[in-house]
Amino acid sequence: MKPIQIPGPIAGCMRWGSWGARFSRSEYKNMIDACLDAGITSFDHADIYGDYTTEEEFGEAIRSAPFDRSKMQLISKCGIRMITPNRPEHQIKSYDTSAQHIVESVERSLKNLATDYLDLLLIHRPDPLLQPDEVAAAVIRLQDAGKIRAFGVSNFLPHQMEMLSPNIAISFNQIECSLFARSPLTDGTLHYCLQHHITPMAWAPLGGGMLDEESHPHARSILQCCRQLAEKYETGINQILLAWLLRHPSGIVPVLGTTRIERLIQAKEAESIVLEREDWFRLLQAAEGEEVA
């Protein structure tokens, strides 16, 4: 599959609908407009968001005031079957990475999002029953039909990516990664991505509110360090948290699941900040509560 670029920061749409802000059609349109005006052109979805309703609401906004599709990147994920009145046939929460489910999910996402193709399709979670050749067959079929441009995974560990890679090229892995969720730095995930030219995308890159709520055991020391560095780099705390991720050599792209355009603009600003190596380790030390071993 031909490599493509998904420019960051990425606007995560999970909370735009019934799982969060409950945007009206005009609010969807205004948010999309604001993102594009700020140079934020990538939008992250999953079929399940809003109990299978958010993609369609986003698509209705697209239909009501057509945008230049060539200047947008649309991402979606599939593979989770949720229990919801919108899918009465689902009797239990489960995963489904069968070729039939993948193809049907993509066809539905295309219709809901009012588009002919997805720039990126991700398998949402590792499936214990995943058959690599079946996933590959579905992806190749969709690619050949021009319905997806790139393929990736979400929340996959190195051995799970390794299982898939002989059958189909993995271009992206969307993972939880932040100063508060650092396991990808040590469990081999980011190393694998760097080695195999897989672009990591980081969901909850600001820590999912842990800094604001001071619910992390080292939140106070992290906040203190962020304030010092924000003053040094003449920026804000959120920009420093994101710059910490962007400093990693694997080329992490942040996905911000926010309903506030200011947060996305802050993420855009973070791209111009290159933390000095010692400052990167100052933040790591603040999060660990001790100096590196």
Report on the structure:
The chain has 293 residues and is of the alpha/beta class. 43% of the residues lie in helices and 13% in strands. The strands form 2 sheets. Strands 1-2-3-6-7-8-9-10 form an 8-stranded parallel barrel, surrounded by 4 helices. Strands 4-5 form a two-stranded antiparallel sheet. The chain is globular. The termini are far apart.
What is the structure about, briefly put?
With 293 residues, the chain is of the alpha/beta class. The protein has 13 helices and ten strands.
- Major sheet: 8 strands, parallel, barrel
The succession of helices and strands, N to C, reads EHEHHEEEHEHEHEHHEHHHEHH
Strand content: 5-15%
Count of individual beta strands: 10
Rg, Å, rounded: 19 Å
Cα shape: globular
How many DSSP helices? Answer: 13
Could you name the ranges where pLDDT drops below 50 across 5 or more consecutive residues?
A: none
Mean pLDDT: 95
- Give the structural class: alpha/beta
Strand order of the largest sheet: 1-2-3-6-7-8-9-10
Proportion in helices: 40-55%
Keywords:
single chain; 293 residues; alpha/beta; eight-stranded parallel barrel; two-stranded antiparallel ribbon; 43% helix; globular
Ordered list of secondary-structure elements with their pairings:
Blueprint: E1 10-12, H1 25-37, E2 42-44, H2 49-52, H3 54-64, E3 73-78, E4 80-81, E5 94-95, H4 99-113, E6 120-123, H5 132-144, E7 151-154, H6 158-164, E8 172-176, H7 183-186, H8 189-195, E9 199-203, H9 210-213, H10 219-233, H11 237-246, E10 253-256, H12 261-270, H13 277-288
Parallel strand pairs: 1-2, 1-10, 2-3, 3-6, 6-7, 7-8, 8-9, 9-10
Antiparallel strand pairs: 4-5
Helix pairs in contact: 1-3, 3-4, 4-5, 10-11, 10-13, 11-12
